Each structure stands twice: as C-alpha cells, then as structure tokens.
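In the design runs reported in the main text, the only information available to the sequence generator was the tokenized backbone. The following block is the verbatim input for one such run; it is reproduced so that readers can re-run the procedure and compare outputs position by position.
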C-alpha cells in the first residue's frame, strides 16, 4: 500500500512532466498560435487494461479533457494492435476528436509487453484541407465541408515513420511544412514525456507508481464527494442561448439540469435543441470536456484527475446540439456551442453554490486573414509585388473573457480555464505578418459592473501594409447573448468587428463575413467582449471604484450611474455621504437598469447592426 507522501511525490512528478510536455511543444512549434499564443494542451494517462484515466495535465484544460476521450478511442480502435514504438493520431470529431482542426498525438508507454501509460499533446493545426483555408468554414453544412478526415491512425509503427501516412496528411493540407513541424513538435514533446515516465517507474518501481495513482484517484474522488455532500440535494435548471449557427438557425438553446443526490452529481442536457444545419454542433467528446472544465472550477483546491469526475453522471441526448451525430458539421463547436455548455452548467450551479461560480468560457470571435506578404527581407515591400502567402489568425481579437468571481475582479485576460494561453504581442505579430497596430488597449466603461467587476473589454485597430490580395473572415460571438454575470452582476458586452469604420464601405460584422476582400491600408476595428460581473455593483467597495476611475477602467459618470459612487473630481476622493444617499435611492428602485452606462451604447450598437444584417439576409433569401 503506497503511503500518501510517496503518492504526492508521484503526483507532483507527473504534473511537472505534463508541464514539460506542454512547454516543450510551445517552444518547439513554428506555429505562432502555439509558440506565441500557447494554445495547446498536454496530458499523461494511465491504462489499467480496460479504461484510460487522466493522471496529469497542463496547458489549456479543455484540450486535456478531450484528449482523454481521444486516448480511449485509440485503445478501442487499436485493441490488440499496439506495439512499442507506435505513435497515434486522432483528428476526426466523429471519431474521438472535438473538431477536425484539433490534432491529438499519443505515445503509448509499454511495460511488460502492454501499454500502461500514454503521453499526449494536442493543438489546432493552421489548416486541415477542405474548401476553406484554416478550416473554420461558416458555410459548412456537413462534416466533409470542414476538412480532411483521417480516422485514428499510426504516424509511426514499431518505431518506424510511416512515410506514406505523413505524405498523405501533407498532401491534404495547404501548409504542409507547418503541419509536419507541428506533428514533429507534438511527437518530440510526447517522447520527452515518455522518457520522464520511464525514469519515474525506474526510480520507484512500476507497482509503486500504479499504487500511487490509485491513491491519487481515490483521494480526488473522496475530496470532491465530500464537497458535494455539503451542497443541498435537489435539481437546478439553466438555459443559455446561442446567437446563431450561421446557417439561419437562431436563438439555439442549451438546457442543462444539475442534480445533487448525496455525493453524486447528475448533469442532464435533456431539453437542449436538436443539432442544426450549421457548424456549431458539439460531439460528446467536446460536451463532456466542457462539463469537466466547469466542474473543475468549482473545487480548485482538489487535484484534477479522473478520480475527481467519478462522482459525475453525464446524460447527453443523441442528435442534439450537444450530442451531434454524423454528418453534422462541428468546426466551430469547440468554443461555440462549447462555451455555452460551460455557461449553462455554471448558471445551474450558481443556484446552490454561487460563491464558487464564474465564467469558464471564451466567446471566441474569429478573425482570419489570408493574403500575400510582399514585404522584403528588411521589412520593405518588394518591387515586383510578389511575396509569400500567409494565413493569419489574430488572437488579439479574442483577448478578454474573464468575469468577476467571489472575492476577485476579472483579471484582464481570458477566463481561468484558458489563462494558460496568451495573445501574441503586437511587436512579434508585426514581425511575423504584414500588420501594423494603431490601437491595442482596454476600453473605458466596458467592464461589467458587479461587487467584483468583470475584465474590461479589449479593442484593437489594425492595418496590413505590405499585404496583397487580402481577404478576411470575421465571426463575432455573443452579440445578442454576451457572457453572463453571476449573483446579481451585470453581463459582458459581446464582440464586434468593423471593416472601414466610418468610411463609405463600413461593414459591422454581426454574424459572419466570409473571406471578404478588404483594403489593407484601411483599419479594421475589433472589440472583444469580456465576462460578466459577480454580485450587486451597489455592494462594491467605493475605494475600489475610485481605483478603477483612476486607472481609467471606469469613468466618473459610470461610477455614479453603475455603482452609485460619487467622486470629488477636484480632490479625487469618494464623497461618502453623497454615495450613501445615491446607493440608498438606487436600492429602493425596483426598476433600476442592470446594463452599465458605457456598455449600454456598445451593446445597443452591436445589436442594431445585428438586426439590420439579419433583415438584409432575409430579404436576400426572399
């Protein structure tokens, strides 16, 4: 029987190894979204002969949870056909993946002739073939419209690279050199993880490590069940709506009930809308991963592994928007409708553990640019106008989503489960792509008011001098239904993109503009909505409101309108008596608005443009 001290040493060793896999992938990748944005994940999984279990993870946790399903898929698919030296790939959303762009590489680690562990890494490849560069095809109506669909396969067999498989994958990709580099990076980082796992087993013995894992899984399960028992028994129901599937279906409902029964949790999506013709359908792998993201947030003090989730029973209606079946298109589902799955679970849990909830999702507005980089080697423009084709995914467009939570303001970036990632800095982006940023900053009065406010929204303005033949695809999310607030906090602002702002060809993108040609010398403006607030803004410490005013997060006018805080602008102090009277008046008004002063104008403009776009679309269809 393993003692707790040895078990903790093993747990921390595996966590450190998962970090090493993750950082190794980030540092070896040639893909800016990975190398700069760190948008990838890593995990270590044990195998008892029947079931894969998550032992350790690092990076974006959504990737790590989805990798568990990918690992089990490979074990089932290659049952009896795995050998030392094999390296596996999972990519198809209807065959163990989440959506086609997310590639998972797995390395089985053999002891005594059978696989006992797997190391895994996962990232979103820059292109996956199909009719749409980059793969995020808003016009996808079936899975084949999204890209190349490899079934689970072996990249290497018995230590030998399968050249025909690698060539086959590269032949179906617009960026074959980058794909090969990504696959090599994932393979190399997983091999380093294998080396570390073997060192661990050599030091303590395989049996001791296996016993330590049993202790780790049992500990997390016991601690989580202990917490669940403190929650009131009963069923809480929440519904969250998705703006659109970009195929004519709007106001799409994700409904979830969370039932506490002793130390068990039942999470049931009955009543969720059916899968749609558009590209936001979530397969069970993705839905389960999002439930696990939300659940892991509830008890951050407990180590996260497969034991943690043994208390969960997840029910997913087949053929629903959260239980899609072939040939449903899925390319946008990892974050839309995935984010709404996480939101719905959080809103249900808010009803019985409000101090443990907050935003767990990213309302990822997509902004892709395709063109030719005509800059010379010294940064100038070539005389011939010829250059190198590029494909650019602007992570600055997605910079904020963090809500307030009990005891803490939104910290100015992505929600906690995604905080391992980061936007690329402007200077590095301008070196890598023909871009020039004129604005890249937080927006005053955009933070959702609350006792603990949300993160301010983020705005940028950018031209692309030196780019030729440019076309862009923008797909804002959460225009109609932005990220919600919690426990009385106000909602976030939603996202918007504007081409040629204020010019004769101005286009406010409310749903999707599919590879629209644009003048690279004319600025593109984008506003990334952030998460909601937590708690009633009238309960916020006036001193914190003053700090926000001094930091230009909140204007003096919004301090009074949203928080009931009156500030002396001559001496920059809170007028305590006036503030007390203002707040008392506000509390007595049952009809007081719960939007937020500066945010109200942003939301209304986006929604007006959204309605105009829908009306024009309907008229065109008629």
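Verbatim output:
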């Amino acid at each position: 029987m393993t003692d707790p001290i040895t078990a903790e040493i093993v747990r921390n060793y595996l966590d450190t190894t998962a970090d090493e896999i993750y950082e190794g992938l980030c540092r070896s990748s040639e893909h800016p979204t990975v190398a700069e944005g760190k948008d990838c994940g890593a995990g270590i999984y044990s195998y008892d002969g029947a079931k894969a279990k998550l032992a350790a993870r690092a990076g974006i946790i959504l990737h790590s949870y989805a990798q568990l399903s990918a690992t089990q898929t490979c074990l089932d698919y290659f049952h009896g056909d795995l050998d030392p030296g094999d390296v596996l790939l999972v990519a198809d959303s209807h065959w163990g993946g989440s959506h086609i762009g997310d590639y998972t590489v797995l390395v089985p680690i053999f002891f005594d002739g059978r696989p006992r562990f797997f190391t895994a890494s996962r990232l979103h490849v820059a292109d996956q073939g199909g009719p749409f560069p980059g793969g995020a095809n808003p016009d996808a109506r079936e899975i084949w419209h999204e890209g190349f669909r490899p079934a689970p396969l072996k990249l290497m067999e018995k230590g030998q690279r399968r050249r025909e498989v690698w060539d086959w994958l590269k032949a179906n990709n617009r960026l074959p050199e980058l794909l090969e580099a990504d696959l090599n990076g994932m393979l190399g980082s997983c091999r380093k993880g294998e080396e570390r796992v073997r060192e661990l087993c050599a030091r303590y013995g395989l049996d001791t490590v296996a016993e330590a894992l049993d202790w780790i899984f049992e500990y997390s399960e016991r601690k989580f069940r202990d917490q669940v028992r403190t929650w009131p028994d009963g069923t809480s129901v929440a519904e969250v709506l998705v703006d659109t599937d970009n195929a004519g279906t709007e106001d799409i409902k994700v409904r979830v009930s969370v039932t506490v029964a002793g130390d068990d949790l039942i999470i049931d999506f009955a009543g969720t809308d059916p899968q749609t013709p558009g590209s936001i359908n979530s397969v069970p792998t993705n839905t389960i991963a999002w439930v696990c993201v939300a659940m892991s947030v509830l008890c951050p003090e407990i180590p996260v592994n497969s034991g943690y989730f043994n208390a969960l029973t997840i029910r997913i209606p087949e053929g629903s928007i959260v239980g899609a079946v072939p040939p449903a298109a899925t390319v946008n589902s990892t974050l839309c409708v995935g984010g709404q799955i996480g939101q719905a679970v959080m809103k249900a849990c808010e009803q019985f553990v409000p101090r443990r909830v907050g935003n767990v999702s990213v309302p990822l507005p997509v902004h892709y640019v395709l063109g030719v980089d005509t800059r010379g080697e010294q940064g100038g423009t070539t005389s011939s106008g010829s250059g190198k084709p590029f494909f650019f995914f602007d992570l600055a467009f997605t910079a904020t989503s963090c809500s307030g939570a009990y005891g803490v303001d939104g910290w100015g970036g992505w929600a906690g489960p995604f905080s391992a990632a980061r936007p690329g800095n402007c200077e590095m982006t301008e070196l890598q792509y023909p871009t020039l940023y004129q604005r890249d900053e937080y927006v005053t009065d955009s933070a959702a008011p609350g006792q603990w406010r949300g993160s301010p929204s983020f705005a940028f303005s950018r031209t692309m001098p030196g780019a030729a033949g440019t076309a862009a695809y923008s797909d804002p999310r959460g225009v109609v239904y932005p990220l919600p607030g919690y426990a009385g906090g106000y909602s976030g602002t939603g996202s918007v993109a504007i081409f040629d702002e204020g010019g004769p060809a101005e286009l406010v993108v409310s749903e999707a503009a599919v590879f629209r040609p644009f003048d690279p010398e004319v600025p593109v403006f984008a506003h990334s909505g952030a998460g909601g607030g937590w708690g009633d803004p009238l309960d916020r410490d006036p001193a914190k409101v003053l700090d926000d005013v001094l930091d230009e997060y909140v204007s003096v006018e919004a301090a009074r309108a949203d928080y009931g805080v009156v500030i002396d602008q001559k001496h920059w102090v809170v007028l305590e008596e006036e503030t007390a009277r203002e707040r008392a008046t506000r509390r007595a008004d049952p009809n007081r608005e719960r939007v937020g002063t500066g945010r109200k104008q942003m939301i209304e403009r986006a929604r007006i443009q959204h309605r105009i776009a829908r009306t024009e679309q309907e008229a065109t269809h008629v």
